[in-house]
Amino acid sequence: MVYGRASAGESTRTLHLEVERQNGEVVLPFDPAEVIENLQFEKYTSTANGKSYRARVARKIYYLFRPLMPVAARKHLQRLSLRGWERIPFPQWPVDRTVDSLYEMLLFASIQAQGTSEIPFVWFWPDGSSACATVTHDIETTAGRDFSSTLMDINDSFAIKTSFQVVPEERYEVTESFLGSIRSRGFEINVHDLNHDGNLFVDHDQFLVRAAKINRYGKQFGARGFRSAVLYRNLEWMEALDFEYDMSVPNVAHLDPQRGGCCTVMPYFVGNRLEIPVTATQDYSLFQILSDYSTRLWEQQINIIKDAHGLASFIVHPDYVIERRARATYERLLDHLRSLREDQNVWIALPGEINDWWRSRAKMRVSHANGRWHVEGEGSERARVAFASIENDRLRYRIQ
User: Fold this and answer.
1) Which of 214, 239, 241, 252 is the least buried, fewest Cβ under 10 Å from its Cβ?
2) What does DSSP say about strands 372-376 and 273-275: parallel, antiparallel, or unpaired?
3) Residue 214 · residue 194 · CB < 8 Å
């Protein structure tokens, strides 16, 4: 049995992994690449990719009548459909780190097998940042679109730039002047589904037709990222989408119509596309499903993610923070993130910046010269060499 703990400073996590050693090499009782792929692609759940026939029929009926239902009516139906969510054993609520823990176990076992004191690697985030956070806004209605300017004012008051995901068709008019107002202020634009009818992944042929339209809107808007409506997803089909990164996969999907979760707080590649997972509870779920207007859950999730040096990724809809109480909660979140940036070196970045960094980092290498380790590759001026070592049967990180 191997025991470990990944930490930097005082953060802790106990790890367990059964291994054997043959001729000095670690032999695992399973294929870790297969396990990780099954988790990141959500293959472990029977509802992965929304294939349930009953679920598809219910979804069509719901979205047929959804435009006629106010939030007060919708939330009761949603609470009914989500009943029992708190008893779901896996993924682990409120943050699941199964994939990350597996990587840590493998690193621990590798250090032991090599008989070395430490292993150098490129630190997770630029400039030695302890963790990362990003805030995104999915615009669902005309009211949300019209509130976006005020939301940018709020964000700027905390010096936090965010991304806005825009629905191209049917929901509201998307003018170049509106898109230009977002770009000119240093915020980011991504594509949010096609028409937000909840049926993007119902039929593959229909999906391909819609994907072609979505790709055209992506080029028209100058958008490099995509997010599906309601976080419906099928990662295999999404190969047809021509975007650098996607933001449609939740870490834990207990409060989403499509259950599952990728079980990681780190970005990961799906082919050539970077997946930037949603690792915090959505504002709508917090306010309308849980009836919670505090930041306690968000802060709990942030603490777990921060201790793991991961990515805290938020969805806050302009549509749902127009109301004074919800807006105040969002402002408390921004204030908390600002303090983490100032006091704990958390990098607050746009999704596009995370995409650029993660792609550059994937191509970097560590090398040893003149008695010191260095990072080589484009963008290495912002990279830091880190070391993983074992101390008192624990995995520990330090940054050079």
Assistant:
1) 239
2) unpaired
3) yes
Mean local confidence (pLDDT), 197-211: 97
Cα–Cα distance between 83 and 75 in angstroms, integer?
Answer: 12
Assign 20 a pLDDT band (cuts: 50, 70, 90). Answer: low
**Do the strands 273-275 and 245-246 form a parallel or antiparallel pair, or are they unpaired?**
parallel
Sequence-ordered strand ranges (E) for the chain: 2-5, 14-17, 20-22, 25-27, 118-122, 131-139, 163-166, 188-192, 225-227, 245-246, 268-270, 273-275, 311-315, 346-348, 365-369, 372-376, 385-391, 394-399
Distance CA(28)–CA(35), nearest Å, equals 12
The CATH code for residues 126-351 is 3.20.20.370
- Write the Ramachandran bin of 220: left for phi over 0, alpha for psi from -120 to 50, otherwise beta: alpha
pTM: 0.88
Domain residue ranges of the chain, discontinuous segments joined by +: 126-351
CA nearest to 314, candidates 271, 346, 345: 346
CA distance 292 to 273: 34
**Residue 86, token pair as written in the block:** 């708190």
DSSP per-residue string spanning 168-208: -SSSS---HHHHHHHHTTT-EEEEE-SS--S-TTS-HHHHH
Q: Which amino acid is at 336?
A: H
Distance CA 324, CA 327 (A): 5
Identify the pLDDT of residue 7.
42
In this predicted structure, what is the pLDDT of residue 11? Answer: 38
List pLDDT tens digits, range 117-135.
999 999 999 999 999 999 9
Place of tokens 């089909």: 237
